[in-house]
Specification:
Two copies of one chain form a homodimer. Chain A is an alpha+beta fold and about 750 residues long. Chain A is built from 20 helices and 30 strands. At the A-B interface, helix 1, strand 21, strand 22 and strand 27 of A face helix 1, strand 21, strand 22 and strand 27 of B.
Amino acid sequence: MAESTTYKVIGTRPIRHDGVDKVTGRAIYGADVQMAGLLHGKVLRSPHAHARIRSIDVSRALALPGVKAVVTSADLPPAEDRVIQLGEGGVNLKYLSNNILAGEKVLYKGHPVVAVAATNPHVAEEALELIRVDYEVLPPVLDVREAMKDNAPLLHENLKTKSLGQETDKVSNIATHTQFKLGDVEKGFREADVVIERDFTTATVHQGYIEPHNATAMWNPDGQLTIWESTQGAFTVQRQLAPVLGLPVSQIRVIPSEIGGGFGGKINLYLEPIAAVLSKKTGHPVKVLMNRAEVFESTGPTPGSYMRIKIGATKDGRLTSAQAHMAYEAGGYPGSPIGAGMMCIFTPYDIPNVLIDGFDVVVNKPKTAPYRAPGATNAAFASETVIDELCETLGMDPLQFRLRNGAKEGTRRADGPTHARIGYLETVQAALNSEHYRTPLEGPHVGRGVASGYWFNVGLQSSVSINVNADGTVTLVEGSTDIGGTRASIAMQAAEVLGLKAEEVRPIVADTAGVGYNDVTGGSRTTFASGYAAIEAAHDVIRQMTERAARLWKIEAQDVTCAEGIFRNKQDGGQSLAFKEVAAQLGRTGGPVVGRASVAPRGVGGAYATHIVDVQLDPETGKVTILRYTAIQDAGKAIHPSYVEGQMQGGAVQGVGWALNEEYFYNDQGVMSNASFLDYRMPTSLDLPMIDTIIVEVPNPGHPFGVRGVGEVPIVPPPAAIANAIYRAVGVRMHHLPMSPGRILAAIPAKG
Amino acid sequence: MAESTTYKVIGTRPIRHDGVDKVTGRAIYGADVQMAGLLHGKVLRSPHAHARIRSIDVSRALALPGVKAVVTSADLPPAEDRVIQLGEGGVNLKYLSNNILAGEKVLYKGHPVVAVAATNPHVAEEALELIRVDYEVLPPVLDVREAMKDNAPLLHENLKTKSLGQETDKVSNIATHTQFKLGDVEKGFREADVVIERDFTTATVHQGYIEPHNATAMWNPDGQLTIWESTQGAFTVQRQLAPVLGLPVSQIRVIPSEIGGGFGGKINLYLEPIAAVLSKKTGHPVKVLMNRAEVFESTGPTPGSYMRIKIGATKDGRLTSAQAHMAYEAGGYPGSPIGAGMMCIFTPYDIPNVLIDGFDVVVNKPKTAPYRAPGATNAAFASETVIDELCETLGMDPLQFRLRNGAKEGTRRADGPTHARIGYLETVQAALNSEHYRTPLEGPHVGRGVASGYWFNVGLQSSVSINVNADGTVTLVEGSTDIGGTRASIAMQAAEVLGLKAEEVRPIVADTAGVGYNDVTGGSRTTFASGYAAIEAAHDVIRQMTERAARLWKIEAQDVTCAEGIFRNKQDGGQSLAFKEVAAQLGRTGGPVVGRASVAPRGVGGAYATHIVDVQLDPETGKVTILRYTAIQDAGKAIHPSYVEGQMQGGAVQGVGWALNEEYFYNDQGVMSNASFLDYRMPTSLDLPMIDTIIVEVPNPGHPFGVRGVGEVPIVPPPAAIANAIYRAVGVRMHHLPMSPGRILAAIPAKG
């Protein structure tokens, strides 16, 4: 496929197709789902962070008028302690199922124990208060380092550590220990003139999407189950639900609504199986909604983590060796993003010797879920702070240091592969050239920091169909939840191929029954992979339309060319037909034209970002004010630059939240003290300046238009960039997130 | 394509996929649609059958609290008096638009004039009473023969008769006069030994579906219009709405619900444009529902008609000539099914000389709509009664007469083409062989009649997509409204090709945005054409799955065979993979598999039926009791025999209604006196014996499995068969439908 590099649609900024629905309030979200006979479910959750369930008495709840059913884990198929295949990986069915409704134990405050369906939500809530659960309360373990200790309370009595790929007999809270190794790290440190080693911790942080979780289920008597909900992946829900409910995939239909934010947090199952079994028991559709406290306490935050980082360089500024010990909290069940953190931590650099040890550790907190470049922000906070200290020690400009040591095409990654064509150095150069970086920063207690970040992005599977309308417009049927404007970015790629305007392609997000399989909207894959499928489906349309034009001219298809939506008769140069003209004749040339494509693209292009931030500190209060922020990122090719900029800005803002304010604040008993948006402090527009953006375009050779995927990497650099800026402002190195006023105030005298 | 003739799925009787939803009341129909901010519309209809609108005063209605908008035809784009292209044919935009909301004139009692949207249906109804319409009442014309007279009141002041393909200057109620001619009919009559000529009339009859019409519309501020409704053709609604509303097709999305019967009556527009403009004016979604009286008075019945039939035969029973004068009532606007009636009237017979004159005539009744083999039942009542009288005169058994004169492959039709392979004689032979026909009929006032019927069936356009699920089942996405079990009949054809069970194919009816173009569910086309598309889409799946199997074996696709869902390695006879096994590996062999096909099949196979009926007359009351009924029909190939039988039974029952009871009863002012199911007498299960069925299978060479389409022809023979049975019972020939007790009582003394 040879695409033109002068585009008509790609790179423009049309209004998104779903824009009016969103701004007029017409868009339908999960909580808007209504149907006849709808019951409402509520979930009773554990008040304890760690306890054994002795007994559950639901009799009084069942006797309450209006209560139609009560379910516990006993209503799910047996949660066997075995690994089942799910998509590309394996997962323990017991963990998957027990996180929905607790089995013998509750493992975090908020762990679901019982659910009730009633004629209205108020009755359901009242019923929860009538349920008696007898708990044997156990001591909780809330910190990853505590949990790794030999004498720590055990969450799972038979969790045997998997170490360096081998099963062991050791029972502990450490689910896995994995290692990446490149060269000889000890030799590398011996070659270094400067070696810096530091400890870091990061807090448990929530994705903080505005829309709480929701699910409405109808379990038909014939065993067909339909779920309506907002999710990042309707097919992913379908595939997780099947083993949890013991249903074949094909009996489950998931109908996705619009989604009010996800950031990775709307991939795991929470309410779906509960709504399903309540529906099965009652014969009615059942809707279950979470409130904000439930979202905080019972859905996946990103892990708190502990990291020890050691990096060495020669005095002329050449990196020789890097080592990381990384321990991530998985929450109540194994499965932190430790692997992704390890894949990202040193990847912006060409380092000959690398050793990374990663630990996936269970603690008495909610099971973690993906959160925008999961694991990479924790990692970059640590590594990019040490790199900054190295640069300072060596007396080098941190961007010049990156230009010298930065990864490029052919650089070997610690996890094995070598980089294909990437645009990291181009982001660093763009930062150096930026008006921001070239403008001196003045004033009291001000500082400028920079940091870089890497995210590998994923490809997975996508399917797209394109139906040609009689008026020459087309409908594009995709299966990717649109979170950040992907209806537009996918439609635009099809429009470019078809020679249509963006508005002439009408994108529709179908349910699991209406389109071929599509993996989750996540991993920065949607514009890349579903866009790829749209391109291929558009080519399929052009092939068929070419045949139709040939039929109209009564010539062979090989004698028809198509460019920019115009079909030409090669035999008769003057004869041409527009796409619309051929479309009007489909009925008499063989029927409708439907293009389709399914892809599992291999040529995923990694994403790099470099951020510059200016801060000012109030030494009285420890408050950090962001004065100026510029996010620079390699998009490969920006299909719709406004939405690329939106991702860069949104990611940066979330990173600022991690850096300065956000954390789950737990008491000793493992109870979260700040489970509301009032107390869990996310940045608002009043806390932030405009986030400036610079899009760098180094086309990904693995995509027809060069797309990489832009959604995740912008959250990676901010904490480190801000920590580095704080150091420039007041001379203290911050090693713990969030860098809240109290921590900063505590650090300044420590320096003094 | 060479299909096996021993089928595994086709010809079996699995439970329909939507069965549980239907019997448990879970299926969602148009009236079930709910959404936030929904307004309710009601329509003010003309109390006069013929009047000029002088003025409309809506001010008091608009002042009523809760009323949000009022619309008249002035709110639709100008209804220009010009022919626009719509699908395969042309239609006058003025007629199309003015039937939705009357322009200068109302042309039938019940003609919509004004519509109101209010916060609830009661307020909307109240508002209707506050609207003042000033009418100049005109004399109505209600009978087709009266309407054809020179001095008849004119419905349209500028309707010029189109005669034999030519425009004329003659203004009348006759919209068109068309003619089919074969041989020399006068010469034919001279060669005949017996010539019989008779006059016939049939009444205006309604389809009588249980579910009234409904439409909910949301007109977004960005010009995107969504319609939720029950319809026989979501795309057909979309294409009609576009010119009426002045919107491009691509801005209209039609989401079909389940449908509670249609029979042709849910193809035309009624409420959709009204709901749309009410939504546009209010910014809210608007739902409009009809009540039963509105359905009778304002939606399309089938035409009343007048026919004069003359048929000649030699004394040895050979047909020599046939002539028909046929005048069909179009209702208020041109467009009766006169053409279809002409195509069907003599088509069961091989007659060398035929002359058919057909007239499409406007009268002050609701615009007719298609009704199950539209026009053919009227025609067969006339022709098959004359044939019966000919047989009686010649002393021949009516079935033997048909065997001698019946149409077969190669017989030329009066409308031009010659028959392909058809199964008419096979239905006659099956009738002769039937236990019913061979069992003598005994008792007082009993009689047995037979009649045959023909319907040409249509093909048009269909699209189907098939998505392969990870568990080896598939989802089949179609765009054909499922009225009589076509989810099953389409899915079964795909299952046969794929080597799956019927239950392993999950059929989904998508909306206009979710699937390629599909023509209406009508013309007995769905199992034929959408089934054809399903077969082709399944072959597309097999092609791709074969490539995947080859990839797993690391061989070329040409070295893989597939039969009955098993892929085999030609190189290694022992190596095989089941469809499910390949399906489980799609992620690692190139991504999802989606098959698709669009078809506009040419090889439509005509349908023939022969019915036998035994009746008993009560000479005191004139009541006819159906003692026994056998419907025999060539299905080509019965995909799901139960649903074929269901169509045969349902068609026969509706034909019994035409024959004995059903009619629009008008007073002199053109007001229908029986616009309720209490007074409009449809047969119930208490009125009928079990309808026995005999399926004959003469495969249609134009379809891979031989399907013809079965939905319409069973309504064609009943009135004639019953008339012939009544004659055998009491010796009177009935020439007017319905053959109600009163008419029969009146006829018996006339004979006496």
